[in-house]
Amino acid sequence: MKKVLVWLLAISMIAVFSLAGCKEEAAEEETAVEEEEVAEEETTEEEVEEVDPASFEGTVEFWCFATEFENFIPKFNEIYPNITINWTNIPNEEIASKLETALGAGTGAPDVFVGEIAYVKKWVDSGVWENLSAAPYNAEELVGDTTPYVVDAGRDADGNIRGLSYQATPGGVFYRRSMAQEYFGTDDPDEIAALMSTLDGYIDMGRTINEESGGENFLLPGWQDLQWFPFNARTNPWVLDGQLMIDQPILDYFDQAKTIRDEGLDNKLAQWSAEWFAGMNGNIFSYILPTWGLFYVLDPTVNPAEPEEGVEYTSGDWAVTGGPASYFWGGTWLGIYKDSPVKDIAWEFVKYITTNKDFLKWDALTYGDYVSDLAVVEEIKDDFSWESLGGQNHYAFFYQEAPKIDSSKITKYDQEIQNMVLAAITAYVEGNLTKEEAIEQFKTDVQTAYPEVSVD
Amino acid sequence: MGKIRLRKDNYGYLFILPFFLIFLGLQIYPVIYTLYLSFQQYDGISRAEFIGWANYARLVKDPVFLKAIINTWRIWICNFIPQLIFGLGLAVILTQVRIKGRNFFRAVYYLPNLVTAASIGILFSALLGRQYGTINQILLKLGIIKEQIYFLGSPGWSSATVSTILWWMWFGHSMIIFMAGIRAIPDQLYEAARVDGAGGWQSFWKITLPLLRPIMIYVLITSLIGGMQNFDIPYVIGEGVTLGTGEPQKALLTMVMYMYNTAFRWSNRGYAAAIAYGLFFIIMVFSVLIFIFMQRRDAESRGIKR
User: Fold this and answer.
1) For residue range A125-149, what is the model confidence (pLDDT) as tens digits?
2) How do A58-64 and A83-89 pair as beta strands?
3) Is A312 near chain B, with CB under 8 Å?
4) Where are the domains of chain B?
5) Residue B46: is its pLDDT beyond 80?
């Protein structure tokens, strides 16, 4: 009997503690609701038609890797002072798996989270993002001016918009003006573009640089930097009807990479390594980067806020032009978690960041990011002059490139499959495997990772 | 009469309850949930689907899993044998030879063990960098090599590199344990040996080594269990070059890394759970083997005494 009593005591003790916890929370929630109601009443009296942004209150949990939100959130709060955006900054390599864990567990998932191009389809296709085409969001009415491929990338299989983006990310080739002058007699973007209009032409430029500099300067930091040309030149998505598609540009890429390495045209640097960045102020002629590469990668490296002594920075010695093919790389979409308790204010945030013209214009003029809204782009594209690019108007260039982008080939497999291709090409280039063996390794890797995909 | 005492003890349950709640919630529950997951097809987001033994059927035939097992063992053995030799050698030198500042050496050798894996990754990617890495630059300047070695680019080099780093991290740890073991050996044995005319080598082979055997088995078991779960060093070493996927040619793909890739890169939680149970099974088999081996030893030594 006494035993039972002790157990009862123990259990009730736990119950009391846990209930106490709940009660506190409930009390807090109640007061919050009351406050909200009061606020709402006030605003309905004041304004009849337009909803005052200040009337939106609450906290939005937001997971994102993009550091530009450091500036975006204060800007948003100028208009919406009573919405707190609780930003958790998670590196891009980790955010997808962290989100999957939170979404799978069903608790702790943020109200708004981002999808980078590599995994945006996971969120779009699996339906974890709210359907923004439906009421009350009616996003279709807001995307009239948005670059079409950006909207399409955020659509699910039924054509509903689930993610929106503030940027479009066409790419180009950034090159050093002084080296262009030295080796090719011109630094004019159009003339350089003509020289590199084919991959063979581009590789030939590398040969010239190699010969004339005596192997001191290089066309590229590494052959991996070339990847976006072959990846975008594919005619099929990586996986079509459950079948792995290895298109000709990919097979050619094996040979191009081998040529570049064997003839000493690249400096054997791994992308994003410290040495790779240092090459921008060093002996590398060109970097293949998209729109965001300018303010995210190039500017901070060639024109840093805290310059180091002994480094000759190359700001102003750069220009951007078209390479062997049009391509796009990256992009960040925002969506609202389908079970978020604060969808209304979450939507205000997503709507503001991705479709507010004043905001997008501010973003473009301040940071040089290429924004997704074509009306904004058309308004500002003609009077841009960028310091690190020697006063070049990069906006006009990207404006030509953006319509050439086709986002229909994006699949949820892209990131992993592309990593596997690069690993296979590495094995071939380093001489560990023959081309046939490397292609075989690539197929086996895809099969191991995705048994549902047929590789033959 | 026993009952009365038992009742008294009941209050104790209250005090140990928090431990058991945590143990059940954070240890037993995941173990059972992983077992449940291993019978599912589950990508982490959509609905899980029951598929019976399919994940295990795939596991026993999976050549990549076999490769991961071999890699894990190779990396472990190539690090454990030198670790044992160095740890034991240094322990003998630091306990039996009079050296000035032996405490200093002891601390220095142990130091690498305190560095976190992430820092090791950064440190070694600077040292092993292909073009401008410290080691390559030194070897080039000394004229030992003509062209930079791509330490992390060839299967053999990268595997050897990881074993070397693990050896460097752990020999100090083994050394400390061996030193404790050597200190516990009674001095009289050495004195008696010296009186009988035994030299340093003889006392080492006939006294130190046999009496250290239990300690060596302890080091072996802990190192084996740690070695089978090897993940962080191959991951951080490969991170800058191949995103930590176990490349080149999967030479660095350990069992835990394969599980990680399957679960979090390729979003196949069900199969990853089956890999986890495969790993569990392997560690269990070897733990049991070592346990049996020790029991027999124990029985033998008792038999000798009698």
Assistant:
1) 888 999 999 988 989 988 989 999 9
2) parallel
3) no
4) 64-293
5) no
DSSP conformation letters of chain B: -HHHHHHHHHHHHHHHHHHHHHHIIIIIHHHHHHHHHTTEE--SSS--EE-TTHHHHHHHH-HHHHHHHHHHHHHHHHHHHHHHHHHHHHHHHHHHS--TTHHHHHHHHHGGGGS-HHHHHHHHHHHH-TTT-HHHHHHHHTTS-SS---TTTSHHHHHHHHHHHHHHHHHHHHHHHHHHHHHTS-HHHHHHHHHTT--HHHHIIIIIHHHTHHHHHHHHHHHHHHHHT--HHHHHHHHHHHTTS--STTTT--HHHHHHIIIIIS--HHHHHHHHHHHHHHHHHHHHHHHHHHHHHHHHHHHHH-
Span A87-129, pLDDT tens digits = 999 988 788 888 988 888 778 899 999 999 888 888 998 889 9
pLDDT at residue B7, rounded to an integer: 60
Q: What is the pTM of this model?
A: 0.82
Q: Are residues A387 and A249 in the same domain?
A: yes
| Same domain flag for A295 and A402 | yes
Q: Which residues of A touch B14 (CB under 8 A)?
A: 6, 9-10, 13
Q: Which CATH number fits domain B64-293: 1.10.3720.10, 1.10.1520.10, 3.30.428.10, 3.90.550.10?
A: 1.10.3720.10
Nearest residue in B to A446, CA atom: B266
Average pLDDT over residues A16-26: 40
Per-residue pLDDT at A111: 94
Same domain? For A436 and A361 the reply is: no
Q: In this prediction, what percent of chain A has a pLDDT beyond 70?
A: 89
Chain A residues close to B131, C-beta within 8 Å:
267-269, 275
Looking at the structure, do residues A179 and A84 belong to the same domain, yes or no? no
- Span B66-76, pLDDT tens digits: 999 999 999 99
Residue A106 shares a structural domain with residue A246: no
Q: How many domains does chain A have?
A: 2
What are the chain B neighbours of A97 within 8 Å (beta carbons)? 264-265
B10/A3 touch (CB, cutoff 8 Å), yes or no: yes
One domain for residues A396 and A355: no
For residue A6, is it within any domain? no
Does A15 have pLDDT greater than 60? no
Chain B nearest-CA distance from A274, in A, is 9
Residue bearing tokens 């010239």: A208
Question: In percent, how much of chain B has pLDDT > 70?
Answer: 93
Of A316, A348, A376, which one is at a domain's C-terminal end?
A: A376
Interface predicted TM-score of the whole assembly (ipTM), two decimals: 0.82
With a cut of 50, say whether residue A297 has pLDDT above it. yes
Chain A residues close to B265, C-beta within 8 Å? 97, 416, 449
